[in-house]
Structure formats: C-alpha cells, structure tokens
Amino acid sequence: MQNENIFKMAEMADTEIQDVPTLNILICYLLKKIEKPVNTEHLYDILITTGLVNYFSYQESIGFLLENALINIKTDNTGADCYTLTPKGIACAKELKKYVPKSYRDNLVLAALRYFARIRMEQEVNVEYTETDNGCYVRVRCYDTENDLMDLKLFAPDRAQAQLIGDRIMLNPANFYSKIIELVLSNEEDSYDLTDN
Questions:
Q1: Which of 118, 154, 180, 192 has a Cα at 20 to 30 A from 13?
Q2: pTM of the model
Q3: Per residue in 26-63, pLDDT tens?
C-alpha cells in the first residue's frame, strides 16, 4: 500500500508536459519572453533537454504552430533557421498564458535563460585537454571580441583530474578569471628580515 502511494505521488510530481495545447501556449509564451528569433535547434534543446517535454509532443506542437501561423521560420544572418512569433502567436502568448500554470512558465523561461547563458559562456571560454605520457594538461582560454583575455595551461596527473579541474572552472568561468586577476594584482614580493637578532 505504501509503495503504491509513493508511486502515485511520483506520477503526480512528473513535470513533463504531455498536453499539446498547453505546450503550444508555452512555446508562444517563451518566444514572446525571449523577444528575438530563436534558433530551431536551441528551442529543441531547451524544451527536450530540460525534461519538460517529450520529443513527440514537441514535434506535434511545432507542427501545429507552423501550420496555424502562430510561428514561422526565418533564416538569420548566419544562415541558421530560427523560430519567430507571428502577430497571432503574440496574441496567443498574451491572452492564453493564464491557462498554463505559472510554475511551468517560470521553469521554461529559467531553462531558456540557463541554456543561453551556457552557450554564451562556451563562446567566451574554451577548455581543452591534452594527454601526455605522465598526465594531462588543461588549457583554459577566455576570449574577448578581438583578443584572448587569458590563455592558461594547468597540469593534472591524469585525465579524470584534468576533467574535474575543467568542469570546476566552467561552473563559473568569470569568477575564475577574476580570482586569477585579483591574485596577480595583489601578488607582492616576500620581504625578509635580514637583520641579525
């Protein structure tokens, strides 16, 4: 009996959206919140990788939205296909959002923000691994628009530890960079007392 109740509670806690009309509203809402065209692959990643939506519901929803002219596909300046809202889609996002629980809307927008922050971070920071006979190097490069802000090479005794270093750096690369700069700027020559006692 107790296991049965736990199973029922787990089913109720499942946050995956399987209702396509709800998903239609959510996609329109997200595109309106982002306020710019969204790469088709990025939208797929945001919705599917968060676990909010399954593949089949996503495909059905996108098909419906395109067919009913709530969204359309445009090519951006890099040649990538992007989803944009039509006026009909904007009206859907504004008028129907109240039919979708706020928790779903908030979770989806938060997932999108995290996704775009990760993409931006990956474009600004690069971590490479080079294995050697006795260990592994971790190379961290922080990019600016024209120059490298930092190009740092660290040694680790094996690939697993190098991966751990790289993963920790990528948790917050801006903080890592600022701590390196802070350390450099606060570094001073050791003073020794050369007088005899």
A1: 118
A2: 0.63
A3: 999 999 999 899 999 999 999 987 777 888 999 999 99
